[in-house]
Amino acid sequence: MRASARRGLVAAPVAAATAVLALLATAPAQAAPPTPVSAATARAYLADLTVTPEPPRTGYSRGQFPHWAIISGTCNTREIVLQRDGTGVVTNASCAATSGSWYSPYDGATWHAASDVDIDHLVPLAEAWDSGAKTWTLAQRRAFANDLIRPELVAVTDDVNEAKSDQDPGTWLPPLTTYRCTYARAWVQVKHHYGLTVDSREKNALATALAAC
Description:
Layout: H1 3-6, H2 13-24, H3 39-48, E1 70-72, E2 75-76, H4 77-85, E3 86-91, E4 97-103, E5 110-111, E6 117-121, H5 125-130, H6 138-145, E7 153-157, H7 158-164, H8 180-194, H9 200-211
Antiparallel strand pairs: 1-2, 3-4, 4-5, 6-7
Helix pairs in contact: 3-8, 3-9, 8-9
């Protein structure tokens, strides 16, 4: 299915995330976001993506993507990802993580305070806006910003997340080179699922990363 046809099929992961939350009480922490598609599948997805120059950014704000939605009780998406990606995570009555450890796959660092960890939107919100999300409804952008089903949300070192900012793989890849294959597979999966476009430099960088998998 071409990207243009998929654009109207944006899922509603916030609703589905209730089931994820229910599993947290019984399942051991997986210390990782959802496993992305295989390299072979990612290469097929990449070939299917529409390649187009990104237009000048206009009208974007993070408020266009309501994020850290309350999923159940007092638990929002950020806190759920901290529990999912961490080890030995303890939370308080407000669902905030008070202790635990978090391994950042972007740089290989381990942290013991939730304040040292950011939840990265793997495909940044601004990048999504530039590559198609500008035309979505607010509900579709909320679903994207809180997607617990695809490998879009990752607990990582805060400084590394800040260095990445809104860059795509054409200008930024994780400093831990052994994670770049996983990162590229996840990036392509998310863009393919949501019918987002890629620019030529981004596609070339992804192709190179996937060829090394």
